[in-house]
């Protein structure tokens, strides 16, 4: 199978490393508008995770400075889009029309209309479309998904998802809201997606927070309200252009058990009635597992049931509704969305 990686920043390099570990997969094309990077020098790449830049051999790959030309002309079976969010919809649609399968980084697109257009084009083209909502494959989050979906926790009573980092200094496009959607949209969509996969769509939402992207501040504390009275809290965002460390965590409490995790030194732990135990985790990196799943779905003709485009589109739509709720500073808004 031949893959084109379109966009060679932090996430593009992360995906390249994953493909290199999969037998039978070849990087058939790459695309970047930086000639130095396109020549294989990715040593300056930075991000909010511990992924070091390095030199990459692109000798056997077609090289394109233009993303649109790449997805239309490259001799590949699938494209992996690691581009600024504003480019996701037009480039994905062009790739689908060119007969390629598409993996597109999260957020799937900037808004509901773009997501719907992408899904319609994938259906028309008969090609696989998947958005890279990687937490669904992260070892620390997989036990939570399994416990929530199978009812092992009992009736849900409390859930908290938190994610925060410094305002990114490695990619200027992230601080441009028309390009990235903003800090809260780009970052907390992970946790919105987790809430959806674990608990479904809420019936109402409320939120508070503050946004000043030029100052590197974009914060949100939101609640997703469910008919039983249960609520999910999602909080976090950008904490100034500083050395503030990236971290993510969750606490979920059910009638019968609780499960908790923090990237700041607390591996996933199960707390039941009269029992406490560390949870066994896969040793496969979440990005690796995500990429392997995408490749497997193409090879077998299966739909990406673990991470459907419909669910990723729902995460975009709900995150936008939370931003609207933040603008109302605490007012409860009905949620008319569905999965």
UniProtKB/TrEMBL annotation:
Q: Where is the GFO/IDH/MocA-like oxidoreductase domain?
A: 146-259
List the keywords (alphabetical): Oxidoreductase
> Which InterPro entries does the record cross-reference, listed alphabetically?
Gfo/Idh/MocA-like_OxRdtase_N, Gfo/Idh/MocA_oxidrdct_glycsds, GFO_IDH_MocA-like_dom, NAD(P)-bd_dom_sf
Q: Which domain of life is it from?
A: Bacteria
What's a single GO MF annotation on this record? oxidoreductase activity
What Pfam families would the database entry show?
Answer: GFO_IDH_MocA, GFO_IDH_MocA_C3
PANTHER family cross-referenced by the UniProt entry: BCDNA.GH03377
Q: What is this protein called?
A: Gfo/Idh/MocA family oxidoreductase
Q: What is the species listed in this Swiss-Prot or TrEMBL entry?
A: Paludibaculum fermentans
């Amino acid at each position: 199978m031949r893959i084109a990686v379109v966009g060679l920043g932090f996430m593009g390099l992360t995906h390249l490393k994953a493909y290199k570990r999969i037998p039978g997969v070849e990087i058939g094309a790459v695309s970047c508008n930086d000639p130095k990077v396109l020549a294989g020098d990715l040593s300056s790449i930075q991000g909010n995770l511990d992924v070091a830049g390095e030199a990459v051999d692109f000798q056997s790959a077609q090289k394109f400075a233009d993303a649109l030309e790449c997805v239309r002309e490259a001799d590949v079976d699938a494209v992996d889009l690691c581009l600024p969010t504003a480019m996701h919809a037009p480039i994905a649609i062009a790739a689908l029309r060119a007969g390629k399968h598409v993996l597109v980084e999260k957020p799937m697109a900037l808004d509901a209309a773009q997501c719907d257009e992408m899904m319609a084009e994938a259906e028309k083209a008969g090609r696989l479309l998947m958005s890279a909502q990687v937490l669904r494959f992260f070892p620390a989050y997989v036990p939570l998904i399994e416990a929530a979906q199978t009812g092992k926790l009992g009736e849900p009573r409390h859930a908290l998802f938190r994610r925060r980092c410094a305002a990114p200094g490695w990619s200027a496009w992230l601080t441009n809201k028309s390009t990235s959607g903003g800090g809260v949209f780009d970052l907390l969509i992970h946790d919105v997606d987790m809430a959806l996969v674990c608990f479904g769509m809420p019936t109402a939402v409320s939120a508070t927070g503050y946004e000043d992207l030029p100052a590197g501040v974009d914060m949100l504390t939101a609640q997703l309200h469910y008919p039983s009275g249960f609520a999910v809290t999602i909080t976090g965002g950008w904490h100034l252009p500083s050395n503030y460390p990236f971290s993510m965590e969750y606490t979920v409490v059910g009638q019968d058990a609780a499960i908790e995790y923090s990237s700041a030194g607390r591996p996933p732990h199960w707390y039941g009635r009269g029992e406490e135990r560390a949870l066994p985790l896969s040793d496969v990196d979440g990005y690796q597992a995500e990429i392997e799943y995408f490749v497997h779905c193409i090879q077998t003709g299966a739909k990406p049931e673990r991470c459907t485009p419909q669910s990723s589109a729902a995460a975009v739509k709900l995150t936008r509704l939370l931003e609207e709720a933040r603008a109302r500073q605490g007012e409860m808004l009905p949620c008319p969305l569905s999965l």
